[in-house]
Structures are given as C-alpha cells and as structure tokens.
TrEMBL record:
CDD domains reported in the protein's UniProt record: FDH_like_1
GO molecular function annotation: oxidoreductase activity; zinc ion binding
InterPro entries named in the record: ADH-like_C, ADH-like_N, ADH_Zn_CS, GroES-like_sf, NAD(P)-bd_dom_sf
Protein known as: Threonine dehydrogenase
PROSITE patterns (UniProt xref): ADH_ZINC
Family: Belongs to the zinc-containing alcohol dehydrogenase family.
Keywords from the UniProt entry: Metal-binding, Oxidoreductase, Zinc
Length: 382
C-alpha cells in the first residue's frame, strides 16, 4: 500500500509499505477514504516530539471503510463506513470506565500519562496512522463509530480530532452564562472552541491570532471579535483593557508547542529544544484571565519541562483544566450540534491534496501558504 513515511524533520515522502494485518482478534483493517493533517502533526514534522522514528506513518484524523475484522469484533462488519477517534483505548480499564479514553492504561507501554494515539510517535504507542491507504484499528468494537447517513464526510473526519478537541477545550473552560471567553489561536481547534463557547453560554468571545485569514475565518465561522496580536505592544494589556482591567473569565489555549510571540521563548522551545515547546500562549493565558478564572488547555506540548508562570497561576487562584481529548465521549452531543448546524467543522477546510502530494501538503500547511487553515488528504486519489 501507499503511505506517508517520516524520514526526519521536514522530510516526509510517500512509499510502499506492507499492508497492515489483523494482529489481535479485536482488530479491524480500515481502508482510508479521507484523512487530514492536524496542527499537532506539524510538531512531529518539525522534530519537536521525542521518539518519532524514521519510517513512522503519521495521521490521527481519518475515516474509511472496514475491509477486515478480527474474530472477536461484533459491532463492525466489512463494508461499514466508520469514523475513528484519534485515541486508541481498550474501553475497560480504570480510566476508560470513567470516560478518560485518552488516558487508557492498556494501550501505551511507553508512558504513564497519555494513552495510545494513531500516527503520533512511539511516545504514544508507536501505532501507524491514517495518512495512508489502509490502517490497523485496534479495539475495533470500542473506538470506531459508523458514520451517520446524514453526516458529511468532511465533518466526520474533523470530528475525529480537531472539532472534538475544540469542543473539549470549551468544556474545560467551565463556561458560565454570560462569561467573557478568550480563545488563543484561530486554527481549526480554536475556531471550533470559539463556536462551542457560544453553545455553552458565553456572553462574549474574543479570538487572538496573527494570521489575518484565520482571524477572518473566526469572524465568519464563529462570529467572534478578533485581535491580531502583532498590532499591539502587549496583547495581554489589550485583553485587560477589553475586560475592564479584570481579565477574561475563561481562556482557552488552542495553540500549544509552536506558539509565536516571543523570539527568545520560541527559539528555546522550538529550535534549541530546551523546552517541550514554546510556552508563550500558555503564559498569555495565565496573564489574560482574571483572578479566580479558568484556563482550558488543549494545545499540544512535549513531555519535557516548560518555562510556565506557575507561580502567577497559583497566586491568582486559577483553575487549569487540560488533557488530550477523550473524543468518543464528546460525540453524542457534537453529532446533534453538527446536525442542527450549530457546529460547522467542514467550514474550516481550505485545501484538499491527493496522498501522493502529501509532502507539498505539509509544506503548505507548515508555512501557512495560500491561506491554508485545514488540509485534507485523499488516499483514494493516489
């Protein structure tokens, strides 16, 4: 089969790889019909995540058709169209029993924190991802869900991570009716976080970014007020001015390890690898939220330390909620919101590339060329 293969930082290509096979009776093999490149895939592409091995196939956002099922699989049949959450989880451990699917205890021998994730280095289990023609799906009875007949494929693929993570970010903010919410980052996760904040009762939603095409999308898609931080001497001061000098009630950090805004921190975190990524956005969140406020963190960071203003968070009495998104837990409510038009994930899609052009797709997305906000990959076009 054809698959995207990692060859080192900024080096990927499409190669022939062996077809995945059933390794356990609970496995399924899925023929990928649509995949996406996630902003967190860029952390791998840029060499920021440890133990990203040569030969690994990325891609944790994908949908497809079931080609084979193991002998124990009962909920899926060959030919079913399925959407697969980015979390790999067993469904029965202490964490899964409490809906913490992203922290499953049985799927990642390499860590005590995160569970398994498709295509996201050996730090998260070493599972090959869906930027390929076929993928092995473990625990096929508990992860994948049949795509509803009414759901658009592009909505379905975005619900496997980006849209679900944005929704989860708003949940982590514990938004109360009338709250002022600031979303840091107008990428796909931030856009859905802003849409979701309204659903959860926000009275005002502000989005901060530096790219005008993203900010324009935040205005049209999420009806948010927007702020280009490059136009202000200090965006934290501007956020205070916008909130009677108190700070926002809730800040959602949807940027993560490659935040710009401070040259020193960006170089230390993303170039010299002295930190698990740049902490700029997280520190802006701590500074921009009011005392006693809440921060929801869904931006991805590496596992090594960061220069985070934890003392300020302590002294302000902040609540910091964070985790990798337990995707399937969000789906029942999100499906209804998408069906009713309150959430519109596919509105953020700007580019579609055949699998054979995935190297170009990564370059365009990484360099933010041609107004690229969310690129999709079509393996069937290979």
């Amino acid at each position: 089969m054809r698959a995207m293969v990692y060859r080192g930082p900024y080096k990927i290509r499409v190669e022939e790889k062996p077809m995945p096979v059933i390794e356990h009776p609970n496995d399924a093999i899925v023929r990928v019909t649509l995949a996406a490149i996630c902003g967190s895939d860029l952390h791998l592409y840029h060499g920021l995540m440890p133990d990203t091995r040569v030969g690994h196939t990325f891609g944790h956002e994908f949908i497809g058709v079931v080609e084979q099922v193991g002998s124990s699989v009962q909920n899926l049949q060959v030919g079913d169209r399925v959407m697969v959450p980015f979390n790999i989880f067993c469904g029965s451990c202490w964490y899964c029993a409490r809906g913490l699917y992203s922290n499953c205890h049985n799927v990642n021998p390499n860590a005590t924190a995160v569970g398994g994730i498709y295509g996201y280095s050996h730090t998260t289990g070493g599972y090959d991802g869906g930027q390929s023609q076929y993928v092995r799906v473990p625990f096929a009875d508990v992860g994948p869900v049949k795509i509803p007949d009414w759901m658009h494929d592009e909505d379905a693929v975005l619900l496997t991570d980006a849209a679900a993570t944005g929704y989860f970010g708003a949940q982590l903010g514990e938004i109360a009716e009338g709250d002022t919410v600031v979303v840091l980052g107008a990428g796909p996760v931030g856009l859905v976080a802003a849409q979701s904040a309204w659903l959860m009762g926000a009275g005002r939603v502000m989005v901060v970014d530096q790219l005008e095409e993203r900010l324009a999308k935040a205005r049209s898609m999420a009806h948010a007020e927007t702020f280009n931080y490059t136009e202000y001497d200090d965006i934290v001061v501007e956020m205070k001015k916008q909130t009677d000098h108190l700070g926002a009630d809730v800040v959602i950090e949807a940027v993560g390890a490659e935040a710009d805004g401070s040259l020193l921190q960006h170089i230390a975190g993303t170039k010299l690898k002295l930190q698990g990524g740049s902490p700029i956005a997280l520190n802006w969140a701590i500074d921009s939220v009011r005392k006693g406020g809440t921060i929801g963190v869904v931006g991805a960071y590496g596992p090594i330390p960061n220069a985070v203003k934890f003392g300020d968070a302590l002294n302000k009495g902040l609540t910091l909620n964070m985790n990798q998104t337990p995707v399937k837990r969000q789906w029942p409510r999100m499906f209804e919101h998408v069906r009713n038009g309150y959430l519109t994930p596919r509105d953020m899609v700007t580019h579609r590339f055949p699998l054979e052009d995935i190297s170009e797709a990564y370059h365009v997305f990484s360099a933010k060329l041609d107004g690229c906000i969310k690129p999709l990959i079509l393996p069937s076009a290979a």
